[in-house]
Amino acid sequence: MSSEFDQPDRGTRYLLPPSIEDWLPEDHLARFIVEIVARLDLRPLTMSYSGGGSNAYHPSMLLALLLYGYATGIFASRKLERATYDSLAFRYITGNYHPDHDTIAAFRKRFLKELKPLFTQTLMIARTMGVLSLGKISLDGTKVKANASKNHALSWEHACALENQLKAEVEELLRQGEAADRSSIPDSMSIPQELSRREERLAAIAKAKEELERRAAERYAREKQDYDTKVARRAAKEQRTGRKPGGKAPKAPEPGPKARDQVNLTDADSRIMPTPGGGFVQAYNAQASVDTDSLLVIENHLSQHPNDQQEIATTVTTLATLPGDLGKVAVLLADAGYCSETNVQRCESAGIQPYIAIWREQHNQALSERSSEPPPLAENADAVAKMNHRLRTQAGKRLYAKRKCTVEPVFGIIKWVLGFRQFLLRTLESASGEWDLICLAWNLKRLHVLTSSAR
């Protein structure tokens, strides 16, 4: 018995010209992104064009191209250019235009600062669609690799040693140059080229040392302020009680760079940070506050701090700038890395009730611990004790349990499904703009799912 097959027909011409509108399903993500971008206020982008020369691609098309690329795991400008030829969805977005990779890269770099207002506008659209109602958010951070290698980092100790070595080599080359008529120099050696190479390296080292000295001065100012506060507190306690305070006296900070202070020669703004699985990576600390109901990113920023404890301040400040029409954040969930008395007070001063773990909970707790209520709270309890009491109640445990299933899945999808595990752009400012771009793309991707399920 012979089988019959449907053979692909690639040669028949269309009687009428095809329309790209016919090639994509009505609920396709590319259509959705084009529709959302059309609702955004892009006047800051369009007004920046001078109008001279040949016609430019419209910013709405290039923005939609970038957003769809980041929402589907295509980040590099060359791959985006190729996709405008190979992908029907990208062809739909560009209207069969093919902007080259230089145009795409220049647009992305030029308008990174304008993404923050668009991020807020997208949240307002989500509110209008009825899928966002602010109330509870989960805050967390993840290390994203910088566009630099940790092997290109230079420590203060090594920079000083290398500087001395290069200066000695320069002196030796100058001596050989002066004695060139009286001694033989290897044919493969060009003294001017060798001198030029070492002078360039010395200039790079001098710039790196200047940056390390600047960071050391900032660190010393912070540590000196903390030291003075601790000394004053101990003195006040001694005067009040008439007894010398127990424990070790605070140690005065030392000015200047430390031997192991490092700066990266490729991206000086990035930092060497520890990773959860062990080891270190040249990275930035990417922060995101995620709505517990919709999984939309409400606030995001990029940090140079290896740990998360200093990130509550930026988060609370940014949340306060959101439009009042979005609603009010009432509850903030975060892990133990954010815990400090200052952070708890900062949240409560902003009208946000914090649920920040005091310590890392042990797995497989006894049934009695999981199901029991905590003892009554002391009348003179401070803000941290009150928060800890809330966390230990049954209602607090159920609420805090939402943290892992909200913000961590967002990071997981961004890094392991979309594949965004390294920034393409360098410097803190540019990488921050790229983090805005990936979070905006995630919100559009998530908003598409939420609105599709509501139909």
Q: How would you describe this protein?
A:
The protein has 455 residues and is α/β, with parallel strands linked by helices. It has 3 domains: 20-111, no CATH class; 133-149 and 268-454, Ribonuclease H-like superfamily/Ribonuclease H (Nucleotidyltransferase, domain 5); 153-264, no CATH class. The chain is 49% helix and 10% strand. It is built from 16 helices and 8 strands. The protein has helices at 29-39, 43-46, 59-71, 77-86, 88-94, 101-110, 115-128, 156-178, 191-241, 311-320, 341-349, 367-371, 383-392, 394-400, 407-417, 428-454; strands spanning 136-145, 153-155, 262-264, 271-274, 280-291, 297-303, 331-334, 353-356. The strands form 2 sheets. Strands 1, 4, 5, 6, 7 and 8 form a 6-stranded mixed beta sheet that branches. The chain has a two-stranded antiparallel ribbon with strand order 2-3. Strand 4 (271-274) and strand 5 form a beta hairpin. It is flat, with a radius of gyration of 29 Å. The two termini are 47 Å apart. The model has no long low-confidence stretch (mean pLDDT 87).
Residues in helices, as a percent range:
40-55%
Q: Enter the CATH topology name of the largest domain.
A: Nucleotidyltransferase, domain 5
| Quaternary structure classification | single chain
Q: Count structural domains.
A: 3
CATH class descriptor name of the largest domain: Alpha Beta
Distance between the termini: 47 Å
How many strand segments? 8
Biggest β-sheet, characterized?
Answer: 6 strands, mixed
Query: Mean of the pLDDT scores?
Result: 87
- Looking at this structure, what is the CATH superfamily of the largest domain? Ribonuclease H-like superfamily/Ribonuclease H
Number of H/I helices: 16
* Unreliable stretches covering 5 or more consecutive residues: none
